[in-house]
Amino acid sequence: MAMGVCMLILGSCAAPRPTTTFTGSWKDPEAKSYQTFFVVVMNKKHQVRSALEAEVSRLLKKEHVKAAKSLDVLGKDEKIETAEEKKAAVAKIQSLTYDAIVTIKLLKSTEEKRFVPGVSSYSPANVGVGSGYYNPATGANQASGGHSAFGMYYMDGGDVYNSSGYYETTKVYFIESNVYEANGAKLVWSGQSEAIYAGDLNAASRDFSTALVQTMKQAGLIRLH
User: Measuring CA to CA, which residue among 66, 73, 79, 100 is closest to residue 185?
Assistant: First the structure.
């Protein structure tokens, strides 16, 4: 029933636009593929850091590689902002023998306001209702549902529905994701992305993490089995 409604209301049930788009990337020609990843979200908000690290790690594991969250090792109160703090964090991570370190950092954010126009949709009348069509072989009306019940459909026509337009305010986050070789902390890949946040942190985390892991996979950074 739901699928039928979507088909009748032209476009109103269209899939939502992607909220994360990778706008550019760089890869070291000598980069390898890796089997164990340490995920670090460099954000002061614990909720954001926790949601993103959990989702990126989960999706990496689905690719049959090992992944760990920085929150499980560094803790939510351990800072990794200054050069000294980063050096200490890298030393701790390297002691865990991971192949690669994935860092995710917010560069900046902007706010967008756009008008979403209303939708005019059409629904045919008498779906499943009608007198059917005349069968000359039997001299009687042949029962038939749906639009083949032309007699009633022709008389009643259809209905047109309209919805009002509205303004939508969203935030756009510009994010940098880096992959380092854990041994030596050499940068081997960097990607820049734009992520649209409409108020649902879990949905945004899933969308960004899916885009990130797929992009890493396409770049050959994840060792396939």
Answer: 100
